[in-house]
C-alpha cells in the first residue's frame, strides 16, 4: 500500500473484534507516532498503551461514555508536555504547538494502523481529569487524544468530502477558481489514483491476452518435443 492509497482508504472504525493486537504491530504504531514532525523537534509527546479492560472502561466513560471504545483491545493515549514547548515558544508553544505536535503523531498512528490492516479512531471528546486519573497522567502533562486500535468488526463506509472549489483558495483567502478541477485535477491524489487504476487494468488485460497464446505455444512445443523423443 503506497502513501496516497493509505491516506485515501483510511476510515474511522467503532466496532472491533476480540482478536488481540500483536505487540510487534503496536511497536510499529508507536514508532510511526514519534516519527511525526514537531515544532523545533521538541517531540514533547508521551504515549500510554492501555490494554487493561478496567482501564479501557474508565477511558470510555471519560470519553462521554462512548462505550464502543471498550471493544478495541488497545487504547493509545497521546499526551503533550506543554511546559517544554512554553520554555522555547512561550504561550504559543503551550497552547498551539503542543496540540499540533500531538495531532501530527496521532495522524501517523492512524495511517500506520491502516497500512498494517488494523482499524482505529481518533477520539478527542473526553473529560481530561477523568483520563488523567484513569492512567496516572501527572499535572505536567495533558491528554490530547485517545486512539482505540484493533481489528475491525465492520467495514466503515467512506464519508463524503466537500468539493475543492469550496475549500481551496489561490493566493488569497476567498479567492476561488471556478473550474479548479481543470487547474489541478490531473495532479490531485484522486485523479492520480483513477489513472493508475486504469493503467493497471489495461496492463492486466494485455498481460492476460499475451499469456494465453504464450502458454498454448509452450504446450504445443512440449508435445512436439515429447513426440520427437519417442521416435526411433
Report on this model:
With 232 residues, the chain is an alpha+beta fold. The chain has two domains: 3-150, NADH Oxidase, CATH 3.40.109.10; 187-230. Helices cover 53% and strands 10% of the residues. The chain contains eight helices and four strands; from the N terminus they run ααβαβαβαβααα. It has a four-stranded antiparallel beta sheet with strand order 1-2-4-3, sandwiched between helices.
Largest sheet: 4 strands, antiparallel
Gyration radius (Cα, Å) is 26 Å
Return the string of H and E elements.
HHEHEHEHEHHH
User: Can you tell me the residue ranges where pLDDT is under 50 for at least 5 consecutive residues?
Assistant: none
Layout of helices and strands:
Blueprint: H1 3-9, H2 23-34, E1 45-50, H3 53-62, E2 74-80, H4 82-115, E3 119-120, H5 128-135, E4 142-150, H6 164-167, H7 180-184, H8 189-230
What are the main properties of this structure?
NADH Oxidase, four-stranded antiparallel β-sheet, alpha+beta, 8 helices, 232 residues, 10% strand
